[in-house]
Amino acid sequence: MHPTSRAFRANATAALSNKTLQQAMANLGFRQKRLEAVARLPEFDALRDQARDIKNHTLQHLDFYLEAYEAKVRDSGGQVHWCRTPEEARQTILGICRSLNARSVTKGKTMIAEEIALNPFLEENGIAPIETDLGEYIIQLRNEPPSHIIAPAIHVTKEQVADSFLEKHAIYGKTRRLTEPREMLEEARGILREKFLRADVGITGANFLIAETGSSIIVTNEGNGDLTQLLPRAHIVLATPEKLVPTLEDVSTILRLLARSATGQEFSVYTTVSTGPRRTEDPDGPEQYHVVILDNGRSAMLGTEFQDMLRCIRCSACMNHCPVYGAIGGHAYGWVYPGPMGAVLTPSLIGVDQAGALPNASTFCGKCESVCPMKIPLPKMMRHWREREYERRLSSTVSRYGIALWAFLARRPALYHLATGWAARVLGRLGQRHGNFENLPLAGGWTRFRDLPAPEGKTFHQAWAERPLRTQDR
Amino acid sequence: MSDARTDILAGIRRSLKRDAVDAETRRALEARLSGHRANLVPKRGQVTGREKIEAFAQMAEFSLATITRVASADQVPQALADYLKSQNLPAEIRMAPDPQLDAIPWSDTPLLKIARGKPNPSDEVGVTGVFAGIAETGTLMLLSGPQSPSTLNFLPETHVAIVRADQVLGSYEDGWAALRQSNRGMPRTVNFITGPSRSGDIEQTLQLGAHGPRRLHIVLIDN
User: pTM of the predicted model, to two decimals?
Assistant: First the structure.
């Protein structure tokens, strides 16, 4: 996927004035459901600590666990394909498809496939990729990327879905414009069922890889990931190294956090553990099982201040609770991963020169970190990216001068007090009549959308020094 | 050995600023892998006896599964026939070739038309046993194998699972322990199923029956 993260500012401005998008984003229902689910499990916070420790331990010994995992996959009759770059992963998948003369490929939801732009590549090579997650299917029809990592079509209204179905389902003889989500689901279910039954290869992502057994795990609510992997001749799993956890017990701990943090469910409807191809005596299941492990810059994150990001289990709690994501939606971020986790991960994967705007798109309210089931310090890492951006002189000239000026004053307290005292007095006098400013030079970014409250004539320091002392302070 | 493999492993070690793990660490990690030590199991996964069965039934309903409880295996065919009738479903079922289900006297309810084996796309009702029920979240645990084709859990619009009370365990960890104890090795597919298929992808409105079954009905034998 070609990143447009550099245009973040323009993307975000457009998103704010896009009425349809604002309508679609108006009720993000995940927050309340997460809150209720967490309240039902008293051990939730203790599980977060354990989950963090499990992933930290795994990352610290990632080479060992990858080798142990690979040996188990081989023992169970599957194959592991190691890929450094998106191009290697695309070629590997194409090679497997070609070896089976595959014409059509069903896909369960995988963000890594978005990362390597798999669909256009398969199409160029004469293979039809069919997204089967309902949300992914909708955006495939609309020819656009997902805007959320677990609810990819969250930016789309039902009227827009109806339009897309009317346009694209005519070839199946469906010519009535639908009005209810129920009918839309039925129509998509019918069409996709045929595709499932005819597909040659099924591609899914992996929520987890298990070193102990050589298994991959996917978690879905629709069951599309299961039909994707059970019906075709081959199941290809597209994963990255940090999906590993040591044992089935370890993954059980993390699974207790995943659905609760994501949709507020007790457990996702389908948690599926896949190990190798079908056994000789099995009546169904894929004849081949391939795991494509794509690094794409992740191993380089180990040992840096961004290592903690590799604990992420892609639950989406951070974006669901982010005021910036809630206001602009996912497309404005300009690449695969939006919201706070995207603001940290995107610069790591495509470069801070491309994605430097994203870690700046935060109010640092800290909500993302407080809801993260893996306790990833997202705001801290965004700050690290801002530092790197500044060091590499990638930030705007105005902000660099602004920060330099502030730093100059902050290092000279006497001058600082003089300057702020003067500003508070002058602004206090100017704003006396209305109590606020409708416009102010250099503060247009603020006053264009709201009034700036006028200072009352003193700085915080002055007011603090003059405060009446309470008894216990004397 | 491919170059990519060598490169990725070397890259990881370079980032972690060390060589491959030493012999002592390796032994410790191998012991961790084979030790199957459980982490924190929530209290609600540690329930026993009647409390466990009740928790399972309650959590299964919370996940929008429906449940009929019967006192013995003899009553299963009638309970199943009644359920199908109540949902206006045909009395034709595709049943897993699971010997566990042979203990049920199906021929006593001659109106049920039963086919065994993996499903055809046209089968409307699938009936399976389970490997275990998990009380913690009302989850069913099913293993693939000659007696339990996994497609039967997904293709028919209605999935009826027959669960004996003695199959109900507390936690996922109990499920793994039972699987290891059964000595059958890791099957191709382990399905944890919690309620019927659903999607919220159109304007976050919950719709059941996205690609998998629209209904999940549990017949629980309180033996």
Answer: 0.94
- Evaluate if residue A240 carries a pLDDT over 50: yes
pLDDT bucket at A266, cuts 50 / 70 / 90: very high
Choose the weakest-confidence range: A177-181, A456-460, A468-472: A468-472
Are A50 and A254 within 8 A, CB to CB? no
Q: Does A278 touch chain B (CB under 8 A)?
A: yes
Q: Does B111 touch chain A (CB under 8 A)?
A: no
Looking at the structure, tell me whether residues A92 and A204 fall in a common domain.
Answer: yes
Q: Measured between CB atoms, does B40 come within 8 Å of chain A?
A: yes
Compute and round to an integer the Cα radius of gyration of chain B.
Answer: 21
Report yes or no: A347 at the B interface, CB cutoff 8 Å.
Answer: no
Q: Which residues pair with B140 in a beta bridge?
A: B133, B193
**Which chain A residues are closer than 8 Å to B186 by Cβ?**
76, 213, 215, 275-276
pLDDT in tens, A375-423: 999 999 999 999 999 888 888 888 888 888 989 999 999 999 999 999 8
- Domain containing A138: what range? 41-296
Looking at the structure, do residues A71 and A12 belong to the same domain, yes or no? no
Q: Which residues of A touch B7 (CB under 8 A)?
A: 84
Which chain A residues are closer than 8 Å to B12 by Cβ? 62-63, 66, 241, 299, 302
Note whether A285 contacts B213, CB cutoff 8 Å: no
Which residues 104-143 in chain A show a CB within 8 A of chain B?
132-135, 138
- Residue A424 lies inside a defined structural domain of this protein: yes
Instruction: Chain B: give the shortest CA distance to residue A152, in Å.
Output: 8
At A79, list the tokens: 């194959």
Q: Is B160 helix (H, G, I), strand (E, B) or coil?
A: strand
pLDDT at residue B118 in the model? 95
Task: Give the Cα separation of A244 and A65 in Å (integer).
Answer: 7
Which ipTM score applies to this complex?
Answer: 0.97
What is the set of domains in chain B, with CATH numbers? 1-35 (no CATH), 43-221 (3.40.50.10420)
CB contacts under 8 A, B 138-197 vs A, are: 138-139, 144-146, 149-151, 153-155, 171-173, 176, 186-197
What are phi and psi for residue B127, nearest 5 degrees?
-120, 125
Q: Is residue A427 part of a domain?
A: yes
pLDDT digits (tens, 9 = 90+) for B133-146: 999 999 999 999 99
Question: In chain B, whose CA is at the least distance from the CA of A152?
Answer: B201
Q: Do B21 and A193 touch (CB under 8 A)?
A: no
* pLDDT of res. A400: 86
**A383 belongs to a structural domain:** yes
Residues A264 and A381 in one domain: no
Domain closes at, from A360, A395, A430: A395
> Do A165 and A184 form a contact (C-beta atoms < 8 A)?
yes
Q: For Cα atoms B29, B31, B33, give the angle at the middle one, nearest 5 degrees.
A: 70
Pairing state between β A215-220 and A234-239:
unpaired
User: What gap in Å lies between CA A16 and CA A21, rounded to an integer?
Assistant: 8
pLDDT of residue B1: 46
